[in-house]
Amino acid sequence: MGKPARARRRDRRRPHRVRAVAMSLMTAWLRGLIGFAMNDKQISELDPGIRDVVVRLNAEGFHTTDSGDGVSKPADWYESGEAIPFPHVVAVLSSSFTRQASAVDLCMEAGRMRDVCGPDWDVECSWSTEGRQWVLFASRRSAQSPPPLLQP
């Protein structure tokens, strides 16, 4: 005896779900391999002191959305809080990664971002409720400041 009609319909829908998940994972994997291409205009608009780091991050598959070197903006931008007064880069994780990510995956991505930026960088990970996505914030410590965990 065959399956009831409801079970047959449910079985037919499952391959589409599996295919959709497989495609989103493949897209995330390809972005990691290929990276995000930046054109010459985008690269030239970056602050000179952070340009190389941003280009490397995008080449490694991070989707950067904001950056600054902490010195290239007008002084009144720093005073008003419009610009951040230290080197930083913000990257968002793709929605396909976010849906599948565990806490360990997020820690691994933060570590990978730090490896690309360099040993004197710190990376924080947070959830953006507005954008419903994970955000990585990398900042370079100054030579005189201790690592974040050692601050009083």
Strand order of the largest sheet: 1-2-4-3
Indicate the overall shape: elongated
Q: In sequence order, what are the helices and strands, one letter per element?
A: HHHEHEHHEE
- Low-pLDDT parts are 27-34
Largest sheet: 4 strands, antiparallel
What's the β-strand tally?
4
Question: What structural class do helix, strand and pairing data support?
Answer: alpha+beta
The oligomerization state is single chain
What do these coordinates show?
With 152 residues, the chain is an alpha+beta fold. The protein has one domain (5-150). Helices cover 47% and strands 18% of the residues. The protein is built from six helices and four strands, in the order αααβαβααββ. It has a four-stranded antiparallel β-sheet, with helices on one face. A hairpin with a 4-residue loop joins β3 (121-128) and β4 (133-140).
Could you give a quick summary of the protein structure above?
With 152 residues, this protein is α+β, with helices and mostly antiparallel strands. The chain is built from 6 helices and 4 strands; from the N terminus they run H-H-H-E-H-E-H-H-E-E.
